Amino acid sequence: MNNQPICCIWEITMACNLRCGHCGSSCADALEGELSTEEALGLCEQLAAMNLQWVTLSGGEPFMRKDWHLLVKKLSESGLAVHMTTNAQMINEEVIAKLRDSGVGQIAISIDGTRE
Q1: 37-49 and 68-77 helices cross at what angle (nearest 10)?
Q2: Is 113 helix (H, G, I), strand (E, B) or coil?
Q3: What is the spatial order of strands in the sheet that 54-59 belongs to?
Q4: Vertex 91, ends 60 and 86: CA angle to 5°?
Q5: 3-state secondary structure of 16
Q6: CB-based burial of residue 101 (10 Å sphere; 0-12 exposed, 13-18 middle, 19+ buried)?
Q7: Prediction pTM value
Q8: DSSP one-letter string for 44-97
């Protein structure tokens, strides 16, 4: 039996622009000691070396991390399918352009929450 993992979910930051009471992560600010861009790009290389099929980037809110598009680009150029999970509150024309240019394959938008 082959127990090779095929996917990874990476919370690239604990920073979040919302404070949802229902959120299991209870994210607010980036944690002290989160990976630098250089360290995160190194982790991208390590994930690619694991022969995964896809990586899902989440958080917190992944768009709170200023270098998210560099991570997506590195992963996608390494042959990995890249998915993202977001609350979509930060999506604008600039983010859409970066999504298109970085090679993201799939976006999941969380719509759960309170009635309001």
Answers
A1: 20
A2: coil
A3: 7-13, 54-59, 81-86, 106-109
A4: 30
A5: coil
A6: exposed
A7: 0.91
A8: HHHHHHTT-SEEEEEES-GGGSTTHHHHHHHHHHTT-EEEEEE-STT--HHHHH
Q: Encode pLDDT of 43-89 as tens digits.
A: 999 999 999 999 999 989 999 999 999 999 999 999 999 999 999 99
Cα–Cα distance measured from residue 111 to residue 75, given in angstroms and rounded to the nearest whole number: 26
CA of residue 1 relative to chain centroid, distance: 30
**Selection from 54, 46, 53 nearest residue 85 by Cα:** 54
Distance CA 33, CA 7 (A): 25
